[in-house]
Design brief:
eight-stranded mixed beta sheet; alpha/beta; 8 strands; 279 residues; Rossmann fold
Length: 279
């Protein structure tokens, strides 16, 4: 799959690895749909995309609001008849040490809402555009930082920590990936997730008070490997650590846990639950 002529939506594309992926896809001749919260940074990314020979459109939305996620999807469906690649990259890190628990505009624990629920809802609402192409890809940017979901306290009302919240939300992304891949098997849409690189040199990492260990280009390499490489054109339902297939936390392979998460999640975002073949 070459990227030229494709339409790609990248959430969280105005900074960090999302911005670098947008820049590199622009050089390949794609139309990049840039999501972010800041119109000024959005305009800067669009200028970079156009200077690199690509085309782009900026779509603002705060993913801490499910109503804004719905509006984002509605606008994209209005403006485009197809979507070749969806990269769910936007997210919130662990936060500074000792940070207090926060909630989204809908009252959900903030990292669970932004890192996981928003991507699930956006993906479900954009599936018609992804299915309108003969082949399409969904890439969920997760993390090697994963923690089993405590179904007795999913929103972490007790014993909160930013690290726990972040790691739980990232495992939820992976579990969603595995289920969606099974649901879409044979449809032409492949779904994978990955840990792009450890502690990339991004604003999120610096806000978390962590010294960067890797570059955004290393992370972009891994994301683009799943989004555009011919090597991953038919591989689906996998978790990658960088460029290599890996194993996620054991809860991701627990069909009962995935079902519990699926039931809860679709209730929270207000969508009917699809049938998924358990394996």
């Amino acid at each position: 799959m070459t990227a030229a002529g494709k339409t790609v939506l990248i959430t969280g594309a105005t900074d960090g690895v999302g911005r670098r992926v947008a820049q590199r896809l622009a050089r390949a001749g794609t139309t990049v749909l840039v999501h972010g919260r800041d119109p000024i940074r959005g305009a800067q990314v669009l200028a970079e995309i156009r200077n690199a020979g690509g085309a782009g459109v900026f779509y603002p939305a705060d993913l801490a609001s499910l109503s804004e996620v719905r509006r984002l999807a509605e606008t994209i469906r209005r403006d485009h008849q197809r979507l070749d690649i969806l990269i769910n990259n936007a997210g919130i890190g662990v936060g500074p040490r000792g940070s207090a628990r926060q909630t989204s505009q809908d009252g959900h624990e903030l990292r669970f809402a932004v890192n996981y629920l928003s991507g699930l809802l956006l993906t479900r609402l954009l599936l018609p555009l992804l299915k309108a192409t003969e082949t399409s890809r969904i890439v969920n940017v997760a993390s090697v930082g994963q923690q089993p979901i405590d179904f007795a306290d999913v929103m972490l009302a007790r014993g909160y920590s930013g690290t726990r919240a972040y790691c739980q939300s990232k495992l939820a992304q992976i579990m969603f990936t595995f289920d969606l891949a099974r649901e879409l098997e044979g449809s032409g849409t492949v779904v994978n997730c990955l840990h792009p690189a450890s502690y990339m040199n991004t604003t999120m990492v610096r806000i978390d008070g962590i010294t960067p260990m890797s570059s955004v280009d290393e992370g972009a390499d891994a994301i683009l490997h799943l989004a555009t490489s011919s090597q991953t054109a038919t591989r689906t339902g996998l978790y990658f650590d960088g460029l290599r297939p890996s194993r996620a936390n054991a809860q991701a392979d627990d069909a009962t846990a995935r079902q519990r998460l699926r039931t809860l999640s679709f209730q929270l975002v207000g969508l009917p639950q699809p049938a998924v073949h358990a394996t």
